[in-house]
Amino acid sequence: MGRKICTECNTVFEDKVLIERKSENCLVCGASLRDMDEPQLAPEENDDLISWYYYAVGKSSHYLDDVYMEDDENSKLVYTFKAPPRDENGDCDAAKEILRKEYDPTAFATPSASTKLDPIVRCPRCGCTSVQLVPKKWSILTGYRTNSVMRVCVNCKHRF
Q1: Would 151 be classed as within a structural domain?
Q2: What average pLDDT does range 16-22 have in this prediction?
Q3: Which range of residues forms the domain containing residue 157?
Q4: Considering its fold, how many domains does the chain have in total?
Q5: Which is it for the CA torsion 106, 111, 115, 116, positive or negative?
Q6: Residue 43 included in any domain
Q7: Taking CA atoms, which of 47, 81, 92, 148 is between 20 and 30 Å from 104?
Protein backbone atom coordinates (compact mmCIF):
# COMPACT_ATOMS: atom_id res chain seq x y z
CA MET A 1 0.00 0.00 0.00
CA GLY A 2 1.10 3.53 -0.63
CA ARG A 3 1.15 6.76 1.24
CA LYS A 4 -0.65 10.02 0.67
CA ILE A 5 0.27 13.50 1.84
CA CYS A 6 -2.03 16.40 2.64
CA THR A 7 -1.53 19.46 0.44
CA GLU A 8 -2.34 21.86 3.29
CA CYS A 9 -0.89 20.52 6.56
CA ASN A 10 1.69 18.09 5.04
CA THR A 11 0.45 15.18 7.17
CA VAL A 12 1.38 11.76 5.73
CA PHE A 13 -1.27 9.00 5.79
CA GLU A 14 -1.09 5.29 4.98
CA ASP A 15 -3.67 4.16 2.40
CA LYS A 16 -5.03 1.47 4.74
CA VAL A 17 -5.88 4.10 7.38
CA LEU A 18 -7.81 6.12 4.82
CA ILE A 19 -9.63 3.01 3.58
CA GLU A 20 -10.59 2.05 7.16
CA ARG A 21 -11.94 5.55 7.80
CA LYS A 22 -13.56 5.69 4.35
CA SER A 23 -12.06 9.10 3.70
CA GLU A 24 -10.63 10.72 0.60
CA ASN A 25 -9.68 13.90 2.45
CA CYS A 26 -7.17 14.70 5.19
CA LEU A 27 -8.24 13.49 8.61
CA VAL A 28 -6.56 16.49 10.26
CA CYS A 29 -7.62 19.50 8.20
CA GLY A 30 -10.02 18.10 5.58
CA ALA A 31 -8.01 19.16 2.51
CA SER A 32 -7.48 16.95 -0.53
CA LEU A 33 -4.74 14.31 -0.52
CA ARG A 34 -2.18 13.47 -3.18
CA ASP A 35 0.08 10.43 -3.75
CA MET A 36 3.63 10.53 -2.41
CA ASP A 37 4.83 9.24 -5.81
CA GLU A 38 3.48 12.32 -7.61
CA PRO A 39 6.17 14.82 -8.42
CA GLN A 40 5.87 17.85 -6.20
CA LEU A 41 6.34 21.12 -7.97
CA ALA A 42 9.01 23.24 -6.37
CA PRO A 43 8.00 26.82 -5.73
CA GLU A 44 9.53 29.29 -8.11
CA GLU A 45 12.54 30.82 -6.50
CA ASN A 46 13.16 34.46 -7.08
CA ASP A 47 16.85 35.11 -7.72
CA ASP A 48 16.69 38.71 -6.48
CA LEU A 49 15.70 37.68 -2.92
CA ILE A 50 18.36 37.70 -0.21
CA SER A 51 18.45 36.43 3.36
CA TRP A 52 17.50 38.88 6.11
CA TYR A 53 18.17 38.41 9.81
CA TYR A 54 16.00 39.79 12.61
CA TYR A 55 17.98 40.27 15.84
CA ALA A 56 16.87 41.03 19.40
CA VAL A 57 18.95 43.27 21.64
CA GLY A 58 17.76 43.08 25.23
CA LYS A 59 14.05 42.62 25.86
CA SER A 60 12.49 45.38 23.78
CA SER A 61 14.97 46.46 21.12
CA HIS A 62 15.19 44.76 17.70
CA TYR A 63 17.02 45.40 14.46
CA LEU A 64 17.05 44.01 10.94
CA ASP A 65 20.16 43.34 8.90
CA ASP A 66 21.17 41.52 5.72
CA VAL A 67 24.47 40.40 7.26
CA TYR A 68 24.59 37.31 9.49
CA MET A 69 26.29 37.73 12.85
CA GLU A 70 26.95 35.10 15.51
CA ASP A 71 24.88 35.33 18.71
CA ASP A 72 26.67 37.12 21.52
CA GLU A 73 25.75 38.60 24.89
CA ASN A 74 24.33 41.73 23.23
CA SER A 75 22.29 40.40 20.31
CA LYS A 76 20.47 37.17 19.50
CA LEU A 77 19.15 35.95 16.15
CA VAL A 78 15.34 35.66 16.35
CA TYR A 79 14.13 35.05 12.78
CA THR A 80 15.54 34.49 9.28
CA PHE A 81 13.59 35.09 6.05
CA LYS A 82 13.98 35.90 2.35
CA ALA A 83 13.16 39.39 1.02
CA PRO A 84 14.30 41.83 -1.67
CA PRO A 85 17.58 43.68 -1.06
CA ARG A 86 17.82 47.29 0.06
CA ASP A 87 16.53 49.91 -2.34
CA GLU A 88 18.65 52.65 -3.92
CA ASN A 89 18.25 54.83 -0.79
CA GLY A 90 19.54 52.04 1.46
CA ASP A 91 16.11 51.47 3.04
CA CYS A 92 14.80 48.00 3.79
CA ASP A 93 11.07 48.78 3.76
CA ALA A 94 10.18 45.70 1.67
CA ALA A 95 11.99 43.43 4.13
CA LYS A 96 10.22 45.07 7.07
CA GLU A 97 6.85 44.53 5.39
CA ILE A 98 7.57 40.83 4.80
CA LEU A 99 8.76 40.50 8.41
CA ARG A 100 5.47 42.01 9.63
CA LYS A 101 3.45 39.57 7.47
CA GLU A 102 5.40 36.42 8.36
CA TYR A 103 6.62 36.81 11.93
CA ASP A 104 5.81 39.90 14.01
CA PRO A 105 2.98 42.26 12.95
CA THR A 106 4.26 44.98 15.30
CA ALA A 107 7.89 44.94 14.11
CA PHE A 108 9.11 48.38 13.05
CA ALA A 109 5.54 49.67 12.91
CA THR A 110 4.99 53.31 13.68
CA PRO A 111 2.80 53.62 16.75
CA SER A 112 -0.63 54.98 16.01
CA ALA A 113 -2.73 57.17 18.27
CA SER A 114 -4.98 54.23 19.12
CA THR A 115 -2.09 52.08 20.40
CA LYS A 116 -0.75 54.64 22.85
CA LEU A 117 -1.36 53.62 26.42
CA ASP A 118 -2.88 55.95 28.98
CA PRO A 119 -0.35 57.09 31.57
CA ILE A 120 -0.60 55.20 34.84
CA VAL A 121 -0.58 57.29 38.00
CA ARG A 122 1.77 55.83 40.61
CA CYS A 123 2.58 56.89 44.13
CA PRO A 124 6.06 58.46 44.22
CA ARG A 125 6.76 56.90 47.62
CA CYS A 126 5.68 53.24 47.25
CA GLY A 127 4.88 52.90 43.51
CA CYS A 128 1.32 51.72 44.16
CA THR A 129 -1.26 52.35 41.42
CA SER A 130 -4.22 52.55 43.82
CA VAL A 131 -4.72 56.31 44.09
CA GLN A 132 -7.75 58.30 45.19
CA LEU A 133 -8.60 61.90 44.33
CA VAL A 134 -9.46 63.93 47.42
CA PRO A 135 -10.81 67.49 47.09
CA LYS A 136 -9.00 70.27 48.92
CA LYS A 137 -11.33 71.86 51.44
CA TRP A 138 -9.69 75.23 51.73
CA SER A 139 -6.50 77.05 50.86
CA ILE A 140 -3.99 78.03 53.51
CA LEU A 141 -3.16 81.26 51.68
CA THR A 142 -6.67 82.57 51.07
CA GLY A 143 -8.76 80.68 53.60
CA TYR A 144 -11.42 79.99 50.95
CA ARG A 145 -12.64 76.80 49.33
CA THR A 146 -10.82 75.73 46.20
CA ASN A 147 -11.73 73.54 43.23
CA SER A 148 -8.46 71.61 43.18
CA VAL A 149 -7.92 68.00 44.22
CA MET A 150 -5.05 66.04 45.75
CA ARG A 151 -4.05 62.48 44.97
CA VAL A 152 -3.74 60.17 47.97
CA CYS A 153 -2.15 56.73 47.84
CA VAL A 154 -4.47 54.07 49.26
CA ASN A 155 -1.50 51.95 50.37
CA CYS A 156 0.77 54.42 52.25
CA LYS A 157 -1.58 57.48 52.55
CA HIS A 158 1.02 59.72 50.91
CA ARG A 159 -0.46 62.95 49.45
CA PHE A 160 0.94 64.27 46.22
Answers
A1: yes
A2: 77
A3: 121-160
A4: 3
A5: positive
A6: no
A7: 47
- Dist. CA 124–CA 98, nearest whole Å: 43
Instruction: Give ∠ CA 113-89-102 in degrees, rounded to 5.
Output: 55
- Cα–Cα distance for residue pair 11/4, rounded to 1 Å: 8
**Residue 110 covered by a domain:** no
Q: Are residues 65 and 30 in the same domain?
A: no
- Specify the pTM: 0.42
Rounded CA separation 127/17 (Å): 62
Q: Is the pLDDT confidence value at 38 over 60?
A: no
- Burial of 144 from C-beta contacts in 10 A (0-12 / 13-18 / 19+): exposed
Helix (H) or strand (E) holding 17: helix 15-21
Q: Identify whether 25 is part of a domain.
A: yes
Residue 97 shares a structural domain with residue 61: yes
121 touches 131 (CB < 8 A):
yes
